[in-house]
Design a protein that fits this description.
Elements: E1 15-17, E2 23-25, H1 27-47, E3 53-59, H2 63-78, E4 82-88, H3 94-105, E5 112-115, H4 125-131, H5 143-151, H6 159-171, E6 179-183, H7 190-199, E7 203-207, H8 214-218, E8 223-226, E9 244-247, E10 251-252, E11 258-259, H9 264-267, E12 273-274, H10 281-304
Parallel strand pairs: 2-12, 3-4, 3-5, 6-7, 6-8, 8-9, 9-12
Antiparallel strand pairs: 1-2, 10-11
Helix pairs in contact: 1-10, 2-10, 6-7, 6-10
Length: about 300
């Protein structure tokens, strides 16, 4: 697990200014910087006979999922990784997908396996994710990896929270003693995000649909992470002046435009720093998927020595 929380008074290197309000945390810029390093490492591993490899499984024809998968495959190509994409009709027999996962688990060319969610309703998504070898669980969703995360041990960290933490880590911004509020309690984002913030020294509150007086909780937050899945749910009057706001939501409005879980226009007038949607946490999620795949390949290369 990467270290976070180093004291540093230097300005955030991945800020861009907009109208002298909040600084915008540019996930595209940070992602490209990190991916440049991945390519160098991937080439070094390839020289040792281990080219990092990612297999992506897509079931169905969900347009958003198709975009996500395409971005992940393109990210592999840019970083010098090997990749495979396996697509199935929405009514595919789950056994076919389970058989493919078993095949990929045994394939030495593949170091990471990703099943794009959501799956059709006739799938048991938990069982599908559990079928992936823990050594290739680069999404970090298996119980072994989540348990290791809770204990602060080495693990594959779920990619969206991992990407969110990189903004702080790369800037050397300390989270020690900060009040952090995570709005959302999913296994994919909310819970692991809270664990990472806590490991970095923050005092963490997890809020959800049944939280009493959500606004009061949010207004205490030095760091506010929105992961509730509701467009523009967090408004500027819910943000503590000077807070850092990480918006991991992605929602499509009736006019086709994308927005996050935060009302960006009102929140940027109050926050000291904020991630935009698109262009903030999203690119970093894919970047950290590549980071986990690279780490998996490095483990294989080290075992060969």
């Amino acid at each position: 697990m990467g270290k976070s929380g180093v004291e540093n008074s230097e300005p955030f290197p991945f800020f861009s200014e907009i109208n002298m309000t909040a600084q915008i945390l540019d996930g595209n810029a940070l992602g490209q910087k990190l991916r440049a390093g991945f390519k160098q490492k991937a080439d070094e591993l390839a020289a040792q006979g281990v080219r990092p490899g990612l297999a992506v499984i897509l079931v169905g024809e969900d347009p958003a999922s198709q975009v996500y998968v395409r971005n992940k495959v393109n990210g592999c190509a840019q970083a010098g990784f090997y990749s495979e994409k396996h697509t199935y009709a929405p009514d595919v027999d789950p056994k076919i997908v389970f058989d493919k996962i078993a095949e990929l688990n045994a394939d030495p060319k593949i170091h990471g396996i990703l099943v794009q969610l959501p799956l059709p309703k006739h799938f048991d998504a938990e069982a599908v994710l559990d079928a992936i070898s823990s050594e290739k669980d680069v999404d970090g969703f298996r119980a072994e990896n989540i348990g290791a995360l809770v204990q602060g041990q080495r693990c594959f960290i779920p990619c969206t929270p991992y990407g969110a933490m990189k903004f702080f880590e790369e800037a050397g911004i300390s989270l020690k003693g900060k009040d952090a509020v995570v709005v959302g309690r999913s296994n994919i984002v909310g819970k692991p995000m809270a664990m990472l913030l806590m490991h970095a020294g923050a005092t963490v509150t997890i809020c959800h649909s049944q939280t009493k007086d959500l606004k009061a909780n949010c207004l205490r937050a030095d760091v506010l992470v929105a992961a509730i899945g509701r467009p523009k749910f967090i408004t500027g009057d819910m943000v503590k002046p000077g807070a850092v706001v990480i918006d991991v939501g992605i929602n499509r409005l009736p006019d086709g435009k994308l927005c996050g879980d935060v009302d960006f226009e009102s929140a940027k007038e109050v926050a000291s720093a904020i991630t935009p949607v698109p262009g903030g946490a999203g690119p970093m999620t894919i970047t950290m998927l590549l980071a986990n795949t690279l780490e998996s390949a490095e483990r294989v290369a080290a075992a060969k020595k």
